[in-house]
Design brief:
The chain is mainly α. It is built from 2 helices and no strands. The model has no long low-confidence stretch (mean pLDDT 95).
């Protein structure tokens, strides 16, 4: 019936709006994650710089230096993953809105 068709169309419109909203929120979340991980890379780089200086001055251990290097690599990996996730989120939003 006509009423059933109108209800079905309204349900479809609500579903699409929900999908777009979720995709947009995912873009915003992943963008924030990129910002956080970029800051973490900066902090890990500074930590590594200090560890190198301490090690060079005989005040730090090789273990501390290796730990600082490991933390920097982890921070870089997290940043790269966040950047990739953000790109995927933008693609999902584009697909959801029909602009892809």
């Amino acid at each position: 019936s006509r009423r059933a068709a109108e209800d079905q169309r309204a349900d479809a419109a609500s579903f699409i709006a929900l999908q777009v909203r979720q995709a947009w929120l995912e873009v915003a979340e992943t963008r924030e994650r990129v910002n956080v991980t970029v800051d973490a890379v900066d902090q890990a780089g500074e930590n590594l710089r200090i560890a190198r200086e301490r090690y060079g001055a005989g005040l730090g251990t090789q273990t501390q230096l290796l730990e600082a290097e490991t933390l920097r690599v982890q921070a870089l990996t997290n940043r790269d993953n966040a950047v990739l996730d953000a790109g995927l989120a933008r693609l999902r939003l584009a697909r959801t809105t029909g602009s892809l």
